[in-house]
Amino acid sequence: MFTATEPVIRNIKVGFRYNTETRSVNDIKGILTRLESKHLHNFSVLRSCYVYTIFWTGGYVNITGIRNRSEIDKSEKHIMNLMKLNTEDITQQLEVHNICASGTFSKIIDLERTRKYIKHNTSHRVTLNLEYFPALFIRIKKLGTCVLYRNGKYSLMAIRQFNQVEEFIKYLLMKKLCIFMKI
Q: How far is it, in rounded angstroms, from Cα 154 to Cα 102?
């Protein structure tokens, strides 16, 4: 039986909306200017212990650079303090948009045979173009995307729930979707 290392979360991206009627864009821009953020056409980027992207239209805030689940609330409180927002100013609660994780399978993967097998035996979308990028992309609708490298390493992305991180790898192993090379 082939195994894989437990996926390690590398990045979590979350977001929330604030009420632009109670906190004007100009107020927020003034605060961010004092914090040495980078202002672009319709958003600003503030690098602190996390990376915050504040969109002017719709009052949306993205937070990235979060390394584990326990840091999510801390990152939200941090930007709310910096932007001088109260909980009443939040119109859409914080939600997870993307979890990225990585790990390693115990064997070398035959990318071409794995692509053919998945393409002919499942409805999952697979992409392999070794001249462009040395990995196989597997998109599973309800789970996310897995990037498989020949050396057995994998990266998971576009995952929206924490339980799906381990579930993705278990799915690949249980369904025997990865074809390992015999050495």
A: 6
Q: What is the distance between the alpha carbons of residues 12 and 99, in angstroms, rounded to a whole number?
A: 5
User: Six-digit token pair at 111?
Assistant: 């990318």
Q: Is the pLDDT of residue 3 over 90?
A: no
- Residue 2's pLDDT band (cuts 50, 70, 90): low
Write out pLDDT tens, residues 118-131: 999 889 999 999 99
Token pair 């100009």 is found at 26
Convert 140-174 to b/e letters by CB count within 10 Å (16 or more is b).
beebbbbbbbbebbbbbbebeeeebbebbbebbee
Cβ count near 80 (within 10 Å): 18
User: What are the DSSP calls for 64-100, one per residue?
Assistant: EEE-SGGGHHHHHHHHHHHTT--GGGEEEEEEEEEEE
Residue-wise pLDDT for 148-157, tens only, equals 999 999 999 9
Pull the structure tokens for residue 79: 């930007």
